[in-house]
Amino acid sequence: MEFNATLLGQAITFAILVWFTMKFVWPPLTNMMDERAKRIADGLAAAERGKQDLEAAEKRVADELRTAKQQATEIMLAAEKRASQIVEEAKEAARTEGAKLLADAKGQIDQEVLRAKEALREQVAELAVVGAEKILRREIDAAKHADLLASIKAEL
User: Fold this and answer.
1) Mind telling me which residue stretches traverse the membrane in this protein (predicted)?
2) What is the tens place of the pLDDT at every residue in 42-57?
3) What's the domain count of the chain?
């Protein structure tokens, strides 16, 4: 009977141990395992969301880079066009200034030519008077000769 009583005591002890474990030990262990499984699932979901967010961000970055490159190209083209316009405006201003300077120079030359012609007329008139005076020393009438010299001067 000793063997049966021991076996019966062990069976009762085992049953109490199983009941105690099922009642007090097992629920917290299953709760911890469920929480851990939930955290792992949440972590995997967050990793998947992070991966999707990363792909979306990479796509946005690629789009922004493409847009920035396009804008940079447009800005460069606009700058080159503006530079060409500035060069053309400068050339036109230089042409206008050159034409103005040329016209001023021509005007000054024309004035100098007129002054030279006038001075030459004066000198020719004086020479004519001197020559006529030498030739006609005897007969000089100042009024007649002044009219004659004025008409010669006008013809020159």
Assistant:
1) 6-26
2) 999 999 999 999 999 9
3) 1
Cβ-contact 110, 137 below 8 angstroms? no
Given a contact cutoff of 8 angstroms between Cβ atoms, the answer to whether 145 and 132 are in contact is yes
Q: How many CA atoms lie within 13 Å of 127's alpha carbon, on the beta-carbon side?
A: 6
Q: Would the pTM of this model clear 0.70, i.e. be above it?
A: no
Distance CA 49, CA 47 (A): 5
Look-up of token digits 């299953």 = 30
Q: Which domain holds residue 41?
A: 2-155
- Rounded Cα distance between 41 and 154, Å, is 119
What are the tens digits of pLDDT across the range 10-42? 999 999 999 999 999 999 999 999 999 999 999
